[in-house]
Amino acid sequence: MAELLSIIGKALTLIGALGLFLYGMKLMSEALQKVAGSKMRQILAAMTNSRIKGVLTGILVTTTIQSSSATTVMIVSFVNAGLLSLIASVGVIMGANIGTTITAWIIALLGFKVSLSFLSLPLIGISFPLFFSKNSTRKSWGEFIIGFAILFIGLQFLKESVPDINGNPAALNFLKSFTDLGFLSVLIFILVGTVLTVIIQSSSATMALTLVMCYNGLIPFELAAAMVLGENIGTTITANIAASVANVSAKRTARAHLIFNIFGVLWMVAIFHYFLLGIDFFMQQQHGVSLLKTNLTQSDFESVKGIYPIGLAVFHTSFNIINTLLLIGFAPLIAKVATMMVPDKGDDDEEFRLKFINSGLFSTGELAIIQAQKEISYFGIRIEKMFSFIQSLMNEDQTKKYYKLISKIEKYEQITDNLELEIAIYLTKVSEGELSSENSKKIRAMLKIIDDMESVGDAIFQLSKVIDSQKQTKLKFTEHQLDSLRQMSALIKKAFVEMNKNLAKEFSQVNIQNATMIEKMINDKRNLLRQQHVEDLKEKKYKHKTGSYYSDLFSINEKIGDYIINVSEAINEYQKTK
What we know:
Elements (H helix, E strand, L loop, with lengths): L1 H45 L4 H15 L2 H13 L5 H14 L1 H13 L3 H15 L4 H26 L7 H11 L3 H18 L2 H13 L5 H14 L1 H8 L4 H23 L1 H16 L10 H7 L2 H21 L3 H11 L23 H31 L3 H33 L5 H36 L6 H26 L8 H26 L5 H34 L1
């Protein structure tokens, strides 16, 4: 019993050490994303016109934010919004795989060659005042330093909790049954690396565990390298999870990540022994130590064990660089295979992308404004379609279809946010060039329009939240309430049709008289419903909570009408200032 408790205690200590390391990495990565995240997103959105630039961007972003998972999730979100093409995303993923190797170097050089654990508490002490700063940048830097310190405390605990070859011969004997199977051992440890990364959800934490196991002599260098290959497969699971609720393009991006990493592991497995001999030769030239030498005496092992983590970092980096160089020319083929793996299923998997603007190539003058106007017109069609989901949501009784609509509305809301940002960046870039006075005024009108259109998307999302809350409480609207909401929706639909008719025309030819008339009808209807609602509450025709949901719905609908008329009024304002 005592022995069992001891084993459980050691296992929990190991898990706790790994958790502490993972928490430090997460804190550090998230802090860096807060400091540099917006810039990284801008760089990612712009670098779409060249595969080489995509690779360099992936390296830069992942090195900066110290998380390939964060980079790949970001890539999936951009493809989901149509702001990054599938082929361009493959290049960025390749770069992210190279960028993530920096983590292994940090751990190998600072965690094993130089022990920073004794500096961790002083670092936390220095950064603690920053952590409570009201300045968001200073606070993020404080979080970064604390995360950095916790990471190395976790690594120190990890090194101490993983058994070494001296103190735990039983553990070594257990592992030897898996390490003496020749090439089968390589395949087993590739699988172990994959499974561990899937479970831990962090290739960095699995890499740290691999480095520590090799450093402590539990597994030979060859099988530690096999685990590193497995981690390259396991890390793709994060992007696939992120894409599971996204559109068809994002799913294809996640599959492309999987294809790239698996193909890399396959060719590496084919030449694994020879590649390791090359790494061993390089390390002998640099450090005078053979990583593949077995049957070392204890004293010899103690003198060279600090080189193993560096050797693994060299292996990890060289593999990912060579894999990228080999496969970068095949990005279109990888994209094609990913497309075959995830076929288009029709409207449910509709692709969202900037149809008329290339965010990597900025046109100038008149052509740029025509492109932007077409994009804005298409934006209007999208938010009109988003509103149609609300009408379906009100009438949907099947649970599966209902939650699919909820998910779709939420996705559209994120897309409207991204589109507004990207069109605004494009228009701002265009305005920096030589423009006529009329085109400058048109750009100002367009910026106002996309702001209001994004607000429409937010308001539609609010409607979905109110409907969902009402459904969760199982409160039902009266037939009169439902009929009134249908009438209000019909007016909003008319307003959308008129708005999109105006957006499709040349701004100088737009007449907003019909749009103004529809807006007045919406306001009058809202006022009538509000008055009737007060009277119905007095007569207790329905519960107060039901009335609250009902009031929210017709009020938000009226707000949507306000944003819609703002679009036409922005065009009218442009006409007056011409």
